[in-house]
Amino acid sequence: MKSIFLKVFLFFSLACFSQENSKINFLHTRDQKIVDANNENVLLRGIGLGGYMLQEGYMLKFPFQHQQQHVIKEEIQKLIGEEKTEEFYNKWRNNFIQKADVDSLKKWGFNSIRLPMHYNLYTLPVEEEPVVGKNTWLETGFKMTDSLVKWCKANEIYLILDMHATPGGQGHDLNISDRDPSKPSLWESEANQQKLIALWKKLAERYKDESTIGAYDIINEPNWSFEGRTEGVEKNGVADTGNQPLKDLMVKITSAIRDVDQNHIIIIEGNGWGNNYNGILPPWDDNMVLSFHKYWNFNTQKEIQKYLDYREKYNIPIWLGESGENSNVWFADAIQLMEENNIGWCWWPLKKLGYNNPLQIKTNYGYHEILEYWRGNLEKPSEEDAYKAFMKLAENTKIENCIIHYGVIDAMMRQPHTDKIRSFGKIVISDKTEIPAVHYDMGKNGIAYYDTDFGNYYVSTGGERTRWNNGNIYRNDGVDIFEDETGFYVGDTKENEWLQYTFQVENEGNYRISFQLASSAEGKAEIVVNDRNLGAIHISDTSDEWKWFSLENVKLQKGKNQLKFKIENGGFQFRSIRFEKQ
User: Fold this and answer.
1) Quick check: bond before 349 cis, omega within 30?
2) Is 20 inside a domain boundary?
3) Is the N or C terminus of the chain more exposed, i.e. has fewer CB atoms within 10 Å?
4) Where is the signal peptide (predicted)?
5) In CATH, what number is assigned to the domain containing residue 264?
6) Rounded-to-integer distance, Cα 411 and Cα 326, Å
7) How far does CA 360 lie from the centroid of its chain?
8) How far apart are CA 284 and CA 280, in angstroms?
9) What is the pLDDT of residue 25?
10) Cα 473 vs. chain centroid, distance in angstroms?
11) pLDDT surpassing 50 at residue 109
């Protein structure tokens, strides 16, 4: 009898212990902070998985005017048919995020992931339900989420669930929610709203005891005028003064979640892409976070002051739930601004067909031909060739097949906290070595390099979108990088711009240092080695052919050395630096 009692006691004790431990790691709010179980401040450093469950056309360089995922899918079906299109999307989703991605994010210093969910991976669209008013639940989305939870748990990373594409779509910006404007939107259909409420309740029931889930971000970037505005950006709700339908729906979603889940933070977003909180506040839940999104504006206190005011007035934590799509300079400045104000952040996206994110998905020749066909420049590819190209693209989404942009990661994780430079990889000079010109140091503009154009600030300036790297390739700094048949080079050089290179020298001594340059006019660059000005190299007109220009007997010390290439008269191209021991 004693033995049975002891076993029962131990069983319930262990069960209670397990239950307590499953709850002690839940994030929650405490006044103006997000905190852990010990009430210690948690600064979320996160990344969004855009393109995983929900593609936007720009992520695939899709050339059509309408760039919603369902449009992309229709165009793919025209090339390879429905069955092979489903095969492509299954492979895309299986490869796009795997445990190796989450392991890498942990290694790089991220502590959270935002999952942009497409509702149609969890439930059928309203118009496809076999029984009106009922919900058919699909395992695809839940299984994908379960896998992410498992990988995040193994890495002690929080997973934030973000309803990125709602039933019917939450705004006039069609791409972000895969909205079909020929059908009722979220705001025009009570059935769509009820489905969204039911989906959040289903998610909360499934994950109510899962502490790896950091929060529920219940509606991403609502952008719909409830006051009949139809022109310009105002149709997206940026100027609405009430936003009552948005508030009402978020209150209903919160109530449905709280019916089954008292543990998780609920994240709210205002109208006008998440930033218009007129008529929405004060908060209606005591475990709630206010999110805002920030793109293409100045990184000053003024730009975020209204959110700081909300935090103070309503005693609620604030979180930069989405930002990115800019230069390394902008990234470092924005993250520094956030962290100085104790605001967590989440960047967008982790990977796409582009260079200004941590991971770049490589394209293939067949996919280039498909893009050119879609642009009207080539004949339609065969079904077999198109199928191979799409499947290769899906294979390239695996992290081991991606290009890792360490400079982007450095700008996000290190540069906000230091002005120190870092060499671009391990560069060792032996008796004869070349350094590609594009391998200048990693660090802030004006410290590791200097370029006159270094970010896109068009929202603040009211002007046009601007580039920073005019070649749109390889690195995400202000330096303009281009590619030809033999590789990358620095171009579009301007007066007073400069590049710095930090490297290790094996053998002390005198070296000939040569610079591979091409120009259609005369140019000039000053060379500084270890703070010693060696004078200028005069660049003749080479008719844009690559020529070498040399300095003789340059003393290099054993170990660390630095070379600065300072442009006095620009307009030339710069490919490589060659070191030869004399």
Assistant:
1) yes
2) no
3) N
4) 1-18
5) 3.20.20.80
6) 11
7) 11
8) 9
9) 86
10) 17
11) yes
